[in-house]
Design brief:
Helix content: 25-40%
Distance between the termini: 82 Å
Largest sheet: 6 strands, antiparallel
Shape: globular
CATH topology of the largest domain: Aminoglycoside 3'-phosphotransferase, Chain: A, domain 2
CATH architecture of the largest domain: Alpha-Beta Complex
CATH class of the largest domain: Alpha Beta
Number of helices: 17
Number of domains: 3
Length: 480
């Protein structure tokens, strides 16, 4: 029970009676709000105090540090946006913290405090009781995502598809019982204080696992890997009869249980920018297909595009080799019948966690679903091989999934994965065939007009080494 020395002068008898009754239910010490909810993004982030005055103004406040006028303008825009969205709340300048600044977005933590609960407020009985009893003011924490333009600034058109990101996150959160940020408010246009689109999401508790990892014991790391393994399987358990990205049409048909998808585009945005006078990416509804049917169809779509731009002869035989590998994968049972949800970027930077005991951690959030899609099972069941390879690895190198670390901490982490994974996940995650299949998926999705030609040859050579009886090597010899 709390023992509080509260001066009662200025309060009426009813106020005093309510306070005396409230004392019986109060703990001896009320934790601060920071102890209740800590944003892991903020921990050790050199950008987190970007909006503090000492990082904007020169000493004495008589001028700007180099280039920081832009930072101050953004700060004022954010403060005005928050004031417009939450006129009943108050925000103080130090409550703005940069959570991250990637290629596509800048993410800012915003902490709001209800006016009626500020400690220095005399408005209303509730505020007076909160102040006198030492109760922390109720706060709300959000993550404000502001898209950047192609130059990394916030002046031109956003590089990211803000509307697509919103519908993807909403659809996925309705399918999964995982801690995913909830989108509270958004604007797709420029008629707001920021002058550009934005989304405002709930800020989940926990620390960014990329930073937290350095603090963890071997047992805690194993605990994290086991939970991540289970999380990947939970995500992959959501399936559809088509491949592609979540479609904007889900906003219109929100009551439908079926998830509408758009086909993976041909050409890709990157290829289309090189050839603006030819076909551009479109958002066509994804047709029901088997994974094998999708791979063949997507190869044929690329071949048709290459004919249109006059490059058909260059890759004709290489497409034959790619299709032959897809057929071999199908014959040997690696493609399945449905498509599975995949986060697309499930690395420690997008995972939040907190330490719960000397030997355990808890995954408290999965963020940044912008790259989520529905793909074949071998793509969705991609293991967290970064844990047993080390931070210096190339996260796109599928061969690392098959790497067997020597005795020691890395071997323990791979064993932690095996202990938590289903038989399917172990097979589709760690096999050579599945690693080759993931390379094939990248080739098929990205096309052969860039450096994927070498990757296509590599995966064909690897398959031929595994299964020479499939005669992929004969096609290679013919191509050479």
């Amino acid at each position: 029970m709390a023992h509080l020395n509260i001066p009662f002068h200025g309060l009426n008898k009813l106020d005093i009676a309510c306070i005396e009754a409230a004392r019986e239910y109060l703990p001896d010490q009320v934790p601060s709000n920071d102890e209740l909810t800590i944003s892991g993004y903020e921990s050790e982030n050199p950008l987190r105090r970007l909006f503090d005055d000492e990082n904007i103004f020169t000493e004495g406040g008589v001028g700007f540090l180099e280039g920081r006028e832009t930072v101050l303008r953004l700060k004022f825009r954010i403060l005005q946006l928050v004031a417009d969205l939450f006129p009943e709340s108050e925000i103080e300048e130090p409550s703005l913290r940069v959570l991250g600044m990637g290629s596509f977005n800048i993410v800012v933590a915003v902490t709001l405090q209800d006016q009626a609960q500020r400690r220095d407020s005399g408005v209303g009985f509730g505020a007076r009781v909160s102040r006198l009893l030492g109760m922390p003011p109720r706060t709300r924490k959000f993550a404000l995502r502001i898209p950047r333009d192609k130059n990394g600034e916030m002046d031109g058109p956003p590089v990211s598809d803000v509307a697509g990101d919103i519908v993807t996150q909403r659809v996925i959160s309705s399918c999964l019982g995982l801690p995913i940020p909830k989108i509270e408010k958004y604007d797709l246009g420029p008629t707001n204080a920021l002058g550009r689109p934005y989304t405002l999401q709930t800020l989940l508790p926990g620390k960014n696992l990329h930073k937290l990892w350095l603090e963890l014991s071997p047992q805690q790391k194993a605990s994290a890997i086991q939970q991540i393994t289970q999380t990947v399987e939970n995500i992959a358990a959501v399936t559809t009869p088509a491949a592609g990205f979540v479609s904007l049409s889900n906003l219109i048909n929100s009551r439908s249980s079926a998830i509408a998808l758009d086909q993976f585009p041909v050409p890709t945005n990157q290829e289309a920018k090189k050839r603006p006078h030819f076909a551009q990416p479109s958002q066509s509804p994804a047709p029901p297909q088997t994974p094998f049917g999708y791979l063949i169809d997507h190869c044929q779509r690329w071949q048709k595009y290459e004919e249109e731009i006059g490059r058909a002869s260059r890759n004709k035989n290489l497409w034959r080799i790619t299709i032959a590998v897809a057929k071999a994968l199908d014959r040997r049972g690696w493609l399945g019948q449905r498509f599975h949800l995949t986060h697309g970027d499930l690395f420690p930077r997008n995972i939040l966690a907190k330490i719960t005991s000397p030997g355990t951690v808890e995954i408290t959030g999965i963020v940044d679903w912008d790259m989520a899609c529905f793909a074949p099972k071998f793509v969705a069941l991609r293991p967290p091989f970064w844990a047993w390879v080390g931070h210096s690895m190339d996260e796109r190198d599928e061969d690392l999934a098959t790497y067997e670390p020597p005795e020691g901490k890395f071997k323990t982490l791979k064993q932690a994965f095996r202990s938590a994974a289903s038989e399917d996940f172990i097979i589709f995650g760690l096999s050579r065939e599945s690693a080759i299949a993931r390379k094939l998926f990248r080739v098929v999705n990205s096309g052969l007009l860039g450096d994927r030609r070498y990757l296509a040859l590599q995966l064909a050579e690897e398959w031929n080494a595994l299964y020479p009886e499939d005669k992929i090597g004969d096609l290679e010899a013919e191509w050479n």
